[in-house]
Amino acid sequence: MSLPADSVLESQIEQWRSYLRRRQAIHSVDVAELEDHLREQIAVLAGAGLAMDEAFLVAVKRMGDLDALSREFAREHSDRLWKQLVVAPPDAGERGTAGRTDALVAFGLAVAAAMLIKVPALFGLQLDTHAPFYARNASLFVLPLLAGYFAWKRGLGAGTIRWLVAAFVAAAVFANAYPYVPQGSTEVLTALHVPIALWLAVGVAYAGSRWGEVAGRMDFIRFSGELFIYYVLIALGGAVLTGLMAMIFLSIGIDIEPFFESWLLPCGAVGAVLVASWLVEAKQSVIENMAPVLARLFTPLFAAVLVTFLATLLWTGSAVDIDRNLLIVFDVLLVVVLGLLLYSISARDPRSRPGAFDVMQVVLLVSALLADAVALWAIATRIGALGFTPNRVAGLGMNVVLLVNLAWSAVLYARFLQGRGSFAALERWQTRYLVVYAVWAAIVVIVFPLVFGFA
Amino acid sequence: MDINKDLIAASSTPLVLAILAEEDSYGYAILQRVRELSGGRMEWTDGMLYPVLHRLERHGLVEAWWAVAENGRRRKYYRITSRGREQLAEERRQWQAVDATLRGIWQALAVPLTPGHPAAGALLPQGA
Predict the structure, then answer these.
(1) Which of residues 31-60 of A touch B (CB under 8 A)?
(2) How confident is the model at residue B118 (pLDDT cuts 50, 70, 90)?
(3) Per-residue pLDDT for B122 more than 70?
(4) Each residue of A318-355: b (16+ CB within 10 Å) or e?
(5) A271, A361, A405, A415: which could join A110 in a potential S-S bond, CB 3.0 to 4.6 Å?
(6) Closest-CA residue to B41 (of B15, B22, B67, B66)
(7) Can you give the pLDDT at residue B48?
(8) A64, B27: Cβ pair inside 8 Å?
(9) Residue B14 in this model has a pLDDT that exceeds 60
(10) Is A95 in CB contact (< 8 Å) with chain B?
């Protein structure tokens, strides 16, 4: 077969094949089977005296309408419409091998994290007796490994890796060097803020050379949201597993609680971070991302709740009751609103025109800002009498950090709605702001204990 | 003569199983055999055979394997299983029952049903 028409035929078949491959219900083995049929048909027709291109056309015509065909395949293989994630297709070839290596490395690191968290126990630091130590260092048992996973995956340069190592070492020093007063607030604040600061280091490793780009950081934001969702799902699965395990072992008179508390829970909790990260990486292009779906679902609901809250506040004129949880509640509110904003941004095509959902987003932002302003005002009028405790300052600081972000986001969003600004400006603002959270968290970890005397 | 789609679909299982009971085969050859047997009266859209084969495979009535054909290409071959033979026997009984029933009624009618049927013409006075 070395006719000149052959190359034309090959390219025609290639086109037909790629057209078939786009059908979700038709796998590549089926495409191969259909192609064999097509080629035989062409050969028979050509043998009967048809020109190659005519034979191709007739053979394609006889194969039938591809929409109808792919519907038939979908009916027979309905499972294929549910994209399968973990099971690699048998004909994945080179990509399959790379995927397997990736999975092996991720699971290897998960096991390493699980062992790492048990290392301090060898030196007499038990989880139940040294809980504060574990609280301060929890993220240090897993985030360096996670950063390492991405450093390996992205092939980071030695320069970046040195910076990452320096960041983790510094975190380890600051988390452990200070003489914290037992049960003091600054120690709790450190435990809460070390992971926030270190998450930026994970981001640098994740984005690799694209850390400087808006798109690279946006991918990191997407990754963080999906990771959170996967982690929650794995945790739920783990809870079912341990619950059942406890009950069936109890039926034969064995109490697994000590094993659960000192092994299963800590090892599972750190290992799951790496497994979840690997899952997010692996499924990235396979399954629709969940965080934007949730954001889309809940943005109108949160907007409705906040607008109702503000209207009720105006109507009744009731004062905001300042108790110790007020700041935390409003910080959480702002974090949720920020999450809704981020994951709406991450899934939105920056080139599309403003729509009803964008208006909803602005309503959400403005109502959240107003609600927060009311709360801040209530606190500000009484802060002198209440005094500056570490918790209150940290809460206020976080509130201001979030408030600034959301306020400027609202301005950018409003400009975009009026057609005076681009959506990309909003993306750029959010991705640049990522550093601010880490800097603030670092301040809480490094400066607060000194200022408040480790109390 | 075009045979109705439902009939084609209903007869596809016994037909494919019977062809595979003759000998192991592959998609293109199975279709050729269908054309040959029906004298070209049963026109299958080529692609539609494959979902049928995959369904039979899933039900364990046929088994498939890939091999290199004489022309050097990789080809998927099908072979009937023992469960497939049982199913074929069952289908055969059912089709024979349908066929016998229809034969009975065709004979009872005893008049050819053609467009130029005299009884049909009798209903139309102006046409007589």
Answers:
(1) 32-34, 36-37, 39-41, 43
(2) very low
(3) no
(4) eeeebeeebbeebbebbeebbbbbbbbbbbbeeeeeee
(5) A271
(6) B15
(7) 87
(8) no
(9) yes
(10) no
Q: Which residue has the tokens 């009311």?
A: A374
The 3-state DSSP class for residue A388 equals coil
Sheet holding B74-80, edge to edge: B25-26, B74-80, B62-68
Angle made by CA atoms A132, A135, A141, in degrees to the nearest 5: 130
What value does the mean pLDDT of chain B take?
84
What was the ipTM of the complex prediction?
Answer: 0.79
The pLDDT tens digits of the residues spanning B15-68 come to 999 999 999 999 999 999 998 998 888 878 888 899 999 999 988 899 999 998
Count of residues for chain A? 455
- Measured in degrees and rounded to the nearest 5, phi and psi for residue A11 equal -70, -30
Counting one residue from A and one from B, how many pairs have CB atoms under 8 Å apart?
Answer: 58
Identify the pLDDT of residue A406.
Answer: 94
The whole-angstrom distance between A79's CA and the closest CA on chain B is 13
d(CA A257, CA A243): 10
Closest CB to A33 among B45, B50, B71? B50
Whether B47 sits inside 8 A of A64 (CB atoms) is yes
Question: Residues in chain A with pLDDT < 50?
Answer: 1-2, 87-93
